């Protein structure tokens, strides 16, 4: 099986180098995600050998050709002496995805069978029993002679030590090499960076880029093009778990009808057995991966497919896709009727989402398609399915994807989405729809629209979104005319405070982005008195040159607000230290306050900078800030490589209000809901809980000095109302989350993978007794959006002393 962020393809050749997706052992630098050494043979021409020459074979498991120009394979004796030198064989050309590349080495006096035409030729007389082969970026000889020293040389793409080699990957060298045996990877080309585990002795089988083997034949692992079905059917390949029982094994003459063809990206086609078995766990469809080569089949062809079964993992935490790779296909007939599609609807999709493995992998668990939705989708992987009149729960993306639900009554929001309200209550009916028809424009839909009529296609799996429907026949979009909301204007005695994530805004962005965001503030939010902004970048955005100021960005934005009919806002922020606040590299992301000076005043207290912590200062009249604007405990490990909260002291009608703008750490690194580990780990949560505790501690310091202090904490917290982050933030009843005051079907501000959820929040202290709170839906539900977040606003009656 392979775990890779790129597609898998096989390369063959005299020196077998396989494109590896896993890392070298801890002692080595990270390997290439594309090329590895797949077979090494040093017995050519020796007494007892059949082949006349030594060889090294390379293989490519990537989705694009791997350019070998300027590369080399290099050989070192197994027990190098002080005078031993690496011997270099230069390479040219490239390794095609799904192909191999053969490097012929020195010939001996024995043997009777020539190698297939090599793709490169060296003169190295390799030992049959022991040695080290390295694939190297460059042709300058290596100098390292120990595993530790070679680990420091970043030019090494992959390395194989065999016999008793001192230089090797992992726990030991590959064993068993001789005059009649090479060391070679398994058919799956698995690379765990342990030569002893990854390569084993076997009869030498050199294959060149043309697929030729010794004696002019084809790869002995390839059965050719049979005209009669073999013994293996698709349901035998799919098996009763998520991983094929035939993973890594060659199959011959697997019969099926071509149901769909993909001619872009990871090319290939799907086949489905027209004679299914009676077991609902064993799927009848499978993807045939052709790499960069366009499939030479058509929908309706009856085919026999031979190749190698492989489980392709888009990433280490996702589930896998069962495929037949390096295929040979025989077309028996064309124009055949397709198998009837399986209907996906509320009656067929289980209410439970996925089985639990206590956080471990569910790969080996027997499928229960009548019990769990993800088991059902897995059992239908590669199979034709059909959906009808499905409600859109996630707007069309720039990648031509749209999320729908086949369970229309499942947790609907007030505006047509599907609410995500619990870690344990997943929405089982969500599925992403894509189209295999590149000749027709993809429909542009918003949340609440309907994909009307029937949509038919095959079930596939991807790292983003999990199971999806690759449509061969797409329904039509019914526009339900979702409208962007406009909140009411605050009254004279109400202070309006809003939060808005403006998605990496900087002065180099197009004016249209500024104008759309500005309209959101001036019109849709009705010009709040204070706007806490997240994701304001420095003035040159993702350029790392030491710039940290945002004056030009904020001037363009505030001018655009005026042009949209809003007030002339002033602003306050604390510039971060260069490169210390996370976010897009070079962008120096930060939180910013905009405020309308005709309605509210800002209390400036000098001394606030990137490293100075703001503190609550008790006075006879209540509490003030030590610096304003300031940052909460910026030296805390909680804020390492992350945005620091911005604190400001405002006055409204002469009364103090403390506003804390936040942007907590992202969910990057968390395991997906649809992944192979269940329940999924939320590793990013640890940092957000720490950050929430820091903010909670600061709020409590304000309340300790003045229990009636009016505090508004708001921003993109990157977590849910039911999360441990929120529990840490509200501990001791220091803050009240306003999202929970809305009706359940309105508690969202963000849409992700068809789930309407809440990452943005406004919370208030006990001193804020009267408020009117609103999430203003203008972005997240729409295909055309200026930000992926909806803004929020609270209007409060400011009470207090002074």
Short description:
The protein is mainly β. It contains 8 helices and 43 strands. A hairpin with a 2-residue loop joins strand 39 and strand 40.
Your description of this structure?
This protein has 802 residues and is mainly beta. The strands form 9 sheets. Strands 2, 3, 4, 9, 10, 13 and 14 form a 7-stranded mixed sheet that branches. Strands 31, 34, 35, 36, 37, 38 and 41 form a 7-stranded mixed sheet that branches. A 6-stranded mixed sheet has the order 29-30-28-27-43-42, with helices on one face. The model is unreliable at 1-27 and 216-223 (pLDDT under 50).
Indicate the topology.
Elements: E1 2-3, E2 16-18, E3 35-41, E4 53-60, E5 66-67, E6 72-77, E7 87-90, E8 94-95, E9 100-107, E10 120-121, E11 131-136, H1 147-151, E12 156-162, E13 182-185, H2 195-198, E14 199-202, H3 234-238, E15 250-262, E16 267-272, E17 285-291, E18 302-313, E19 321-333, E20 342-343, H4 373-379, E21 384-394, E22 402-405, E23 430-435, E24 450-462, E25 466-473, E26 476-478, E27 494-505, H5 511-524, E28 530-536, H6 551-563, E29 570-572, E30 590-595, E31 601-602, E32 616-619, E33 622-625, E34 630-631, E35 646-652, E36 655-663, H7 685-705, E37 711-716, H8 724-730, E38 736-737, E39 750-752, E40 755-757, E41 760-764, E42 771-775, E43 792-797
Parallel strand pairs: 1-18, 9-10, 17-19, 20-21, 23-25, 27-28, 36-37
Antiparallel strand pairs: 2-3, 3-4, 3-13, 4-9, 5-8, 6-7, 6-11, 11-12, 13-14, 15-16, 15-18, 16-17, 18-19, 21-22, 21-24, 22-23, 24-25, 24-26, 27-43, 28-30, 29-30, 31-35, 32-33, 34-35, 35-36, 37-41, 38-41, 39-40, 42-43
